Sequence to fold (469 residues):
Amino acid sequence: MAVRGISDPDFWWHLRTGELIVKTHSFLRTDPYSFTRFGQRWVNHEWLSDVLIFSVYRTSGFAGLMVTFAAIIAATFLLVYRRCPGRPYLAAFLTLWGAEAATLSWGARPQMFTLLLAATFLLIIDRSDERPAILWWTVPLSLLWVNLHAGYALGIGLLALALIGAGLDAAFGSRQYPHSAENRRALTLAFIASLTVVSLNPNGMRLYSYPLETLRSRAMQTYINEWFSPDFHQARYVLLLGMILATLVMLTISPRRLSCREILFLSAALFAALRSVRHIPVFVLIAVPVLCKLTEGCIERYGSAWLLTPKPRPGTWRTAVLNAVILAAFGTFTFARIRYVEHQQPEIEAERFPARAVQFICSQHPTAPMLNHYSWGGYFIWKLYPNYRVFIDGRADLYGDSFMNNFAASYYLTGEWRRLLQTWGIRSIVLPPDAPLVTALESEPGWTRVYADSQVTVLTEVTDSRRNH
Fold:
């Protein structure tokens, strides 16, 4: 399920950044890619992910990246499965349900490291009820996480909620969840130590505030699809809606009761998922084991526990041969799937990104500065840098809310939309043909179309000498 073509718009600037870090043996602390933010401070919180992405690409190409990130995703849901009661059948079914609901965010992107580490933190927290010392693993994992992705804040948040939940369970005298004083002490020390090691990254103390600034960005919530709230009118969110409703129903009818920690985790994750599509996988990581636990309680109440586990059967040579055939068939299918997706990658790239327009730009060299579409900036960084610097790309935090609002005003012809073109001296436009800005400029004598296809229109400003001629 996780082997898929590379289509994330940000993948390309991650790839270029990893290449620059590896080849120059230095961190990128300022922006090298855009002419609108060139030389300004850039919080490259994903630097280690970028290095890993480029290193895999350099050694094994797109196929290696597809397999690597598919393995990361598969490992994430293996940990979800391990946390579920009701293994193997009930846990397997609900894990697959959750995985399918979370596929919208899958891909070759640093966020997958955050999902894997979040699943690891949740497993550690679960196991710490019996073995509090295991919580010390969160400290080196936090150090790794903060250098892979700013999603490290999720791990810190999980530790904080676990500590609050343990305190509430102790305060209310819950016999079902008797968190010991040793467990609460270990949670406290692990939280403090994990929070302390956050500063051990190339950006230093800046990483403490960065995740909160990203979450508070109004422009990102307004313009970037994965930061939108899920629209349950769309079929792709039906599985998520079903999981939410199933969890709420089971909370009312199941004889099992949740701990304060589980309630806090579930409430926070549900709020995050309803706020942004980007957080749906986090909700799945937390909701699947909870739903499994509640459902198992209902099944046991109605005397159907035999549905949860297979009947023990003696092993025979026939079952061994059958298992070997199944594994061989699955391995063959997986290999064929990888080869097929790798073969389709050029088509995926051409469908999602302006590949033909890039060929035109490389051959005809339209005049810079060039205004490009937000979703194409990363692709241009990989294909055109350093010959061209981009106007904007997926690093929304670098550009800021004001800049993105001005870009949107220019794109949609609202307010003083010409000011952006004049401020930056734009000489070429590379946007979708249906962009309102393209329609407006094509009707003016100062601009001419030099390239067009179904994806892209390239306009260049006509100089006085060309206009007179």
Observations:
- The longest strand covers residues 447-452.
- The mean pLDDT is 93.
